[in-house]
Amino acid sequence: MKVLWSFAGIACTVALGLIVAVLVHEGGRGDELSSIGSFATALATAAVALGAWLWRRQHRETADEAADELAHTLRNRELDALGQLLAARGDLSPAKVDFLVREHLSERSDGGLSQGTIADSARYYRALERGRLVVLGDSGAGKSVLLVQLALELLNQQTEEQEPRSRLPVRMNLASFDPFHDGRTVDQLGDSVLTTRYDSWLTSQLTQLGIRRQLAAQLVADDRVLPLLDGLDEARDVQRSVAVLRVLNVRARFRPFVLTSRTTWFEQVVTDERLCDASVVELQPLSPQAVREYLVDRLGTHAADYRWRTALNAIESAENDELKWPNPFADALRSPWRLYLCCTIFAASGDPYRELAGLAPEEMTNQLLARLIPALSEQHGRVHGVEWPATDVTSWLRVMARRNERLLPDTAEITLPALWPAAGRILPRFAGAVLQSLTGWALAVAVAAFIVEYPAVLSIDTPWPAKLVIVTFLLSMVGATSLMNTGMPVTVSRLSTHLWRTRNGRRTLI
Question: The dihedral of CA 54, 56, 58, 61: what is its sign?
C-alpha cells in the first residue's frame, strides 16, 4: 500500500505544480489550460497504474518464494561469518573440537550420540528426535563456529535433497531479546504473552535479512524457521535467560532450536528453569594432536620455521601420556580462541613460545588481545596496500563501545546497526535529511528547469513570477519533507550490502 500511495503522491505533486504554473501564467489561454490539464491527468493516471501494478506484484509473492530467497541470503551470510571467525584463506577448516553429552541438565534428553565434533555437527543434530540441542562451553570454546558450521551444512543438505518446506536455520543473538521492556516479570507475562513476544522477536530478526514483515511473520507461524540462538549468557540477566528457557518449553515437542551458553551460566539458570526434551552437550578443550594439526595446516611452510619449532616441540611432547607435568604453553593453546589469536599474531614474525611460555592462561589471553589490532592492521590493509593505523582502529572501537550499551565484549559479531549509534542521536537524522534534500532538490530543479526553460514543449510562455512560484513550490516541498523525516528513526541496517543479492533486499533498499 505504501508503494501505491507513494506513486499517487508523486503524480499529484507534479500535476499540482503544473496547474499552479498555468494559473499564475499571465494571459493564459483556454487551450493551454486544457492541454496542461490533460497532460497532468495522463501523468497521474500512469503513476497510479504503475504503483498499483507494483503493489499487486509485491503481494503476489508467497512464503515459499521468500523462504528460497532467505536460504540464499543465509548461505552467503554464513560463508562470510565463517571466514571472519576463522580468518580463513582458501579451504581451511576449523580446529577439531569435540563435544560430550552432559547429563542431568534437562528434563529428559532428546536422544543423539554420546559424543561428536564440530565437523559433523549437522549429522549429530539430525539424529535428535525433536531437534532440541544445547551447546555449552567456556569463552572461546568454539560455540559460534559450531552454529555457523551447522547452519551451512543444514542449508547445503536442504539444497541437495530439495526438501519441501524444510526449516531454515537462522542464527540470532539473544542479547537483543528483551521480553521485559514494559517492566513485567516472567510470571506476570505468562506463557501466552511470552511466546507472542518471542515470535515477534523472531519476525524482527528475519526482517533484518530483507524479508517483508508480513512474510516473515508467516514463516514463523508456519514453523519454517530453525532458531540458532547464540549467547544465552550475553544478556547478563538471569531472568531473561529463564524467560528464554520457558518459552522454549512451550509446545516443546514442536519447537526445535539450537542454544549456546557458557557452562557456568547455564548451570545457574537451570536451577530456576529446566528445558524439556533437550540434549545438552559441552565443547571440550582441543587435544594436543588437534592443536598441532591446526598449526601445521594454518601455517603451511612457516610451520617448519625456526620461530615455531620450539612451540611445536612443546605441543608434541604434551601428547606423551607418560609426561608427569603438562606443558603450560601447550595446555593454554587447547582453547580454540587462544589458538586462533596466537596464529594470527605470530603469523609473520616473533617466537610464540619464547614470548608466551611463562604466562598463565589468562595473562596469555590479555597479552594476545593487546596485540591483536596491530597485527590485523598490518596483515589486512586497505586498497593499494595502505595499512590501517592501529591507533585509529582502537580509537574507533572505544568510541563505539562507549556509545552503544548493547555492544558486549563477548559478542562475536559487530553489525552495522550496532555501530550506527556511535554517531549519536541527532547527527544521523539531520545527515539523512540533508541527503534527502540534496537528492530531492536535484530532481525538483530538473523538473523546474524543464518547465521554465523549455516552454515550447508545453506550449506555455512562462513569465518570471510564475517561474519563481514553480521553483519555490518544488524546493519548499522537498525541504519540508526532508525536515519532517528528521523525526523518524534511522534504520541503517537497511543499507547492508548483502541485501542486494535477493529480490526482496533490492526492493527494500530501493
Answer: negative
Q: Which strands form 132-137's sheet, in the order they lie side by side?
A: 115-117, 98-101, 279-283, 132-137, 257-262, 225-230, 168-173
Gap between the Cα atoms of 10 and 40, Å rounded: 11
C-alpha cell at 73: 541470503
Give the SS3 label for residue 289: helix
Q: Look at residues 140, 34, 40 and name the one whose alpha carbon lies nearest to residue 95.
A: 140
Q: What angle do CA 369, 371, 376 make, to 5 degrees?
A: 100
DSSP character string of 312-381: HHHHHHHT-TT-SS--HHHHHTTSHHHHHHHHHHTSSS--HHHHHTTS-HHHHHHHHHHHHHHHHHHHS-
d(CA 275, CA 245): 6
Written as one string, the DSSP assignment of 104-143 is SSSBS-----SEEESTTHHHHHHTSSS-EEEEEE-TTSSH
Distance, in Å, from the CA atom of 79 to the CA atom of 74, rounded to the nearest integer, reads 8
Tell me: pLDDT of 164 over 50.
yes
Q: How far apart are CA 247 and CA 7, in angstroms?
A: 43
**Coil vs helix vs strand at 69:** helix
Give 182-226 pLDDT, tens digit per residue. Answer: 888 888 888 889 999 999 999 999 988 878 888 889 899 988 999
Q: Any idea which residue has 601445521 for its cell?
A: 296
CB 102 within 8 A of CB 137: no
State what percent of residues in the chain have pLDDT above 90: 19
pLDDT surpassing 90 at residue 228: yes
Round to whole Å and give the CA distance between 231 and 409.
12
